[in-house]
Write a sequence for this structure.
């Protein structure tokens, strides 16, 4: 046999997505076909399962069942928030050596890329032949180099469908509705709310992103303007919006927010930002019906809302990662590029340090000048990613009946 | 022509649902076929559109487009929260007479049934020949007589799919996740979360309903028990849970909650209850990762999450209402009965006062003895309502790999 024989190890790290198991299936199925593969192991709970030697033998998983798992949201191998340092990585590396792991695939965000980078270095410095590949996933869409990230399209689809509902709801009963979307630094997911817009007066009418300083004065003026024009207002806001000094708006609005046992203020995963913004509108504009919904964890692995394109690309990335490692004998991070705007992708392998620890935010050309919305270019960018068969709202077109009673 | 000739008026009231436009289409299409029908009008914004004589001529809506509107969530005729008194109804009745409205169909909850009841009385007392029919809709599933209500199945499907995601999320990263579901008095929608359970240790592990007094002590003991057993805990809680004295838990946990301009405490539509319960767990059980999501408006007309069965029944109810009014010359409220548990329905017409102003809650046999979950009977009741093709989660079944490194 020509090439590096040995076992393949795959793991999933960080927050789950709706399609992260597609990547797992892509790696597993492709690696199982390769004669260099002695076995495919899956580590439970990401890097923690490597240190603790908690492996499943994925060589024994039936193909049919693996396809069913692929279509299931969230990390089938379970996940972890552990961020390994060099010593942690050394322990992982030790376990890998002991099991004759020769191929390591880690599906995760930029922290995971960094973990792969450290392990890759340790292997090289000790002369152990190991192929290590990072495969991207994140609903935040904030990984460097990539045109977009697996997981984002499905989460964006959820956000778009949610805002379609909020828009229809606000049309029926008027008022102001705020939807708070995940995203501390990158506004991609919040911005995808605009795919809910079809008719000229559809919401979201205003979109606030972490990439632009948020001003309460401008916010109230924006809302008042929309409310006067349409008698209602739907607002998409990223949980991570900050003021011009970089202070999170949530802290600004709620300076006495309790600290937890670790001295950290609990910021995300609560409905507080939306509630505070709603209160700001109620007080500032005397509008009565103001409600806020915080999408929270629903948006990252809601069962059954999946972008078919996202799922296919997540699968292909896993497959492609195996090609780079087992056919080309390369290490690195696989990335998605988009040579055809509407729409075609290709995959590429870049150095791990091009992705590791970096965060990508919305480019300027995606955000409008008023900093309260997005551009048509963003819409073109985002629309293909949420997949086909996106629900569409339809309004009655029937003509008005002339009045005869009230005026008479 | 034998029978009552005249115009047909249809309107939608109260909170929107995912299938309320199916009923609108059912009424409109069936009424248009009937030679007694001079025209089909739709009132905008429910009863308000009747008083203000804001009508669309639905006789001019194309059939294809009406089908597209039927598949769109939320009230296509827009809605209102107005609760008409006798004088308001008299004004509506005056407008109806002026337009020669002879058939009135009002799609809504128990308040809407009461409105139809008053108008029906006014018509009878003045000798004006009018057929008035209430057609049910509500995501709360709390209308009397009905086995279940149109709109519930789709909202229940959303809740089930949401909890599938939360369950998978908590499996991947452990911790405690709370999902707060709509329902001030009736726990049906919260209870439907249990359709997310497939494997023995799946969440939601605990379900708290407004039908049973909520005790913080029992709650903490429940959570601790589940957390010890599974290392995680997923909780479904109704926004309207109350203590033994009937005080909403939200008020108990947050007694200083600000009152709004009308002296009412803002209770629903905020993430507060979930956040406060999360804090209770963090402090009481010293568990670090505790998060709460409040489903808010997402659950009532999220685009694209529709129970096919719910949609079909909503359509049939509209059609059936027209049969009762135009063929049988009857007034009343159409209801869904279920002669076949798993699964067949039939429709019936009952007196308006059997439905008007009444609220149905979960029967005792649907709630477990511990008051922290539901019974198998509830599952049998609810499963058919959320429709076919419900997503299903699949776990890896691969065997563990024997440890060789750590133990060595």
């Amino acid at each position: 046999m020509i090439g590096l024989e040995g076992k393949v190890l795959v793991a999933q790290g960080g927050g789950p997505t709706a399609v992260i198991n597609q990547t797992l299936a892509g790696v597993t199925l492709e690696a199982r076909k390769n004669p260099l593969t002695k076995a495919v192991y899956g580590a439970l709970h990401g890097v923690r399962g490597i240190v603790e030697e908690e492996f499943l033998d994925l060589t024994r998983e039936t193909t049919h069942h693996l396809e069913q798992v692929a279509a299931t949201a969230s990390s089938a191998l379970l996940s972890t928030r552990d961020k390994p340092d060099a010593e942690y990585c050394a322990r992982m590396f030790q376990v890998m050596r002991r099991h004759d792991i020769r191929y390591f695939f880690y599906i995760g965000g930029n922290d995971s890329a960094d973990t792969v980078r450290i392990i890759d270095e340790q292997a090289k410095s000790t002369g152990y032949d190991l192929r290590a590949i990072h495969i991207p996933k994140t609903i935040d869409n904030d990984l460097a180099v990539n045109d977009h990230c697996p997981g984002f399209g499905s989460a964006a689809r959820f956000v778009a469908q949610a805002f379609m509902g909020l828009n229809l709801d606000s049309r029926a009963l008027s008022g102001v509705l705020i939807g708070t979307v995940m995203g501390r630094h990158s506004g991609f997911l919040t911005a995808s709310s605009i795919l809910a817009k079809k008719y000229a007066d559809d919401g979201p009418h205003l979109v606030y992103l972490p990439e632009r300083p948020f001003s309460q004065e401008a916010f109230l003026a924006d809302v008042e303007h929309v409310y006067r024009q349409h008698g209602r207002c739907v607002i998409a806001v990223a949980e991570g919006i900050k003021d011009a000094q970089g202070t999170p708006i949530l802290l600004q609005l709620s300076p006495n927010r309790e600290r937890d046992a670790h001295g950290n203020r609990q910021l995300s995963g609560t409905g507080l930002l939306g509630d505070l913004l709603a209160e700001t509108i109620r007080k500032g504009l005397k509008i009565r019906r103001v409600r806020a919904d915080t999408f929270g964890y629903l948006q990252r692995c809601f069962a059954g809302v999946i972008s078919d394109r996202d799922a296919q690309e997540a699968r292909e990335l896993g497959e492609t990662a195996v090609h780079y490692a087992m056919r080309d004998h390369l290490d690195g991070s696989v990335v998605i590029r988009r040579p055809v705007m509407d729409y075609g992708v290709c995959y590429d392998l870049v150095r791990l340090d091009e992705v590791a620890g970096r965060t990508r935010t919305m480019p300027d050309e995606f955000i409008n000048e008023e900093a309260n919305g997005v551009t048509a270019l963003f819409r073109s960018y985002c629309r293909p990613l949420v997949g086909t068969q996106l629900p569409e709202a339809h309004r009655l077109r029937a003509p008005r009946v002339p009045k005869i009673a009230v005026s008479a």
User: Anything to note?
Assistant: Chain A has two domains: 6-150+306-354, 153-303+363-386. The domain at 6-150+306-354 of chain A is CATH 3.40.50.450 (Rossmann fold). The two ends of chain A are 94 Å apart (CA to CA).
